[in-house]
Amino acid sequence: MQDFKKLLVWQKAFEFVPVCYKHTASFPPDERYILTSQLKRAVLSISNNIAEGCGRFSQNDLAHFLQIALGSTTEVENLILVAQALGYLNDDAFDQLNTLNMEIRKMLISLIYKIRELK
Predict the structure, then answer these.
(1) Which residues contact 7 (CB under 8 A, 6 or more apart)?
(2) CB neighbourhood size of 116 (10 A)
(3) Could you read off the pLDDT of 66-106 as tens digits, one per residue?
């Protein structure tokens, strides 16, 4: 077990949440329970799974939850692409969200590889 709050990837994922929430606030009201909700859940899932993995006793469990968080970054990528295609995100907003998401994704991949090396 380790303190998830000390992980830079968790800190970055945690900071990503309000940024994403800010951008989804401008989505149309009829998307509140569809795209908006799905995007918020996916972005929350990143930091939640990092935290949950850190609460486990084995490196295998940690790696497993980091992989789930990694999958959530792919879901976020798809959802922001959909939002952009529908005109809900302008290019600047899309770029900001995509850049943050890709940074987190790269950090997760790196951490997963490091954990696997320790086994």
Answers:
(1) 50, 54, 111
(2) 12
(3) 999 999 999 999 999 999 999 999 999 999 999 999 999 99
Other Cβ atoms closer than 10 A to 85: 10
> What are the domain boundaries of the chain?
4-118
Q: Any residues with CB less than 8 A from the CB of 74 and at least 6 apart, and which?
A: 105
The answer regarding whether domain 4-118 maps to CATH 1.20.1440.60 reads: yes
pTM, 2 dp: 0.94
Which of 16, 75, 79 lies closest to 8 in space, CA to CA? 16
**Cβ–Cβ < 8 Å for 42, 74:** no
| N-terminal to C-terminal alpha carbon distance within the chain | 15
In angstroms, rounded to a whole number, what is the distance separating the alpha carbons of residues 17 and 101? 10
Integer angstrom CA distances of residue 101 from 57, 67, 107 = 27, 15, 10
